[in-house]
Design brief:
alpha/beta, Rossmann fold, seven-stranded parallel beta sheet, about 45% helix, binds 1,4-dihydronicotinamide adenine dinucleotide
Length: about 250
């Protein structure tokens, strides 16, 4: 799967974790990668971590802000000579039980995870339609399908991402653009490092493969969905979860 020479890819939340691994996986295959992130402090470090900083461009921006979203798409078009692949990966958690959940916890998670996905996709849609192989890949989560105590806001946002993805798949299928979601299970990143003590062990007992996922496990599935080989796959949610949800 090295059919990415010169392909223009935009990855949101690209400066660390799963987004960085996705950026690296595309850059290694010759893609022109635009990494957008609200965290701009480690821009050079993040681009260097892909192993191909010359193929990368970093854009500071907030996916939940419409102007920021358009600016990131423009930057990707400039860097890559168009836009072929959009990976909506930026996401946040504000975990707490419903009784303690503040309006702000709800709004922030919805704003980044769901509205951010909408704003980025809307800003990118014309460009993706112009691409000979437009691809939209949204990072959802298995909890969007199963629910999770303490994550009502996050699970709702990810369920929303699934409904959004399927709708866009139907809207853009006739324009040659595929839209799919990848639903990671429990992946080792900064996001999961914040889990309360003991929670990780309890979750691991629910994973048939008895290991946490790696960021590469997720990135490789994203690359496949963006490849020409996946051209007839659209509107799907692909879990990458070691068998947690089946
Ligand atoms: P992370 O917290 O390590 O990285 C997320 C990145 O998104 C960070 O670089 C952050 O600065 C950026 N970001 C946050 N808000 C942003 C905004 N408003 N605009 C632009 N960038 C923003 O998280 P991780 O674990 O790499 O997660 C990536 C995606 O995978 C998220 O959508 C997350 O919900 C999803 N996911 C992660 C799982 C896990 O086990 N780590 C499981 C299921 C889904």
């Amino acid at each position: 799967m090295s059919d990415f020479e010169g392909v223009s890819v935009l990855v949101t939340g690209g400066s660390r974790g799963i987004g960085l691994a996705i950026s690296k996986a595309f850059a290694e295959r010759g893609a022109k990668v635009t990494m957008m992130d609200i965290l701009a402090d480690h821009a050079d470090e993040a681009m260097a971590a892909t192993g191909h900083p010359d193929r990368c461009r970093f854009v500071a921006g907030d996916v939940s802000d419409a102007d920021s979203a358009s600016a990131a798409i423009d930057a990707a078009v400039e860097h890559g000579g168009g836009l072929d692949v959009l990976v909506n990966n930026a996401g946040i958690t504000r975990d707490t039980l419903l009784m303690r959940m503040k309006d702000a916890d709800w709004d922030q998670v919805m704003g980044v995870n769901l509205k951010g996905t909408f704003l980025m996709t809307k800003a990118a849609s014309r460009r993706l339609m112009k691409s000979p192989r437009g691809r939209l890949i949204n990072i959802a989560s298995v909890v969007g399908m199963t629910g999770n105590a303490g994550q009502a806001n996050y699970a709702a946002s990810k369920a929303g991402v699934v409904g959004f993805t399927k709708s866009i798949a139907k809207e853009l299928a006739g324009r040659g653009v595929t839209a799919n979601a990848v639903a990671p299970g429990f992946i080792q990143t900064d996001m999961t490092a914040e889990l309360p003590e003991g929670a990780a062990e309890r979750l691991m007992s629910l994973i048939p493969m008895s290991r946490l996922g790696t960021v590469e496990d997720v990135a490789e599935v994203v690359v496949f969905l963006a490849s020409p080989q996946a051209g007839y796959v659209t509107g799907q949610v692909i879990p990458v979860d070691g068998g947690m949800v089946m």
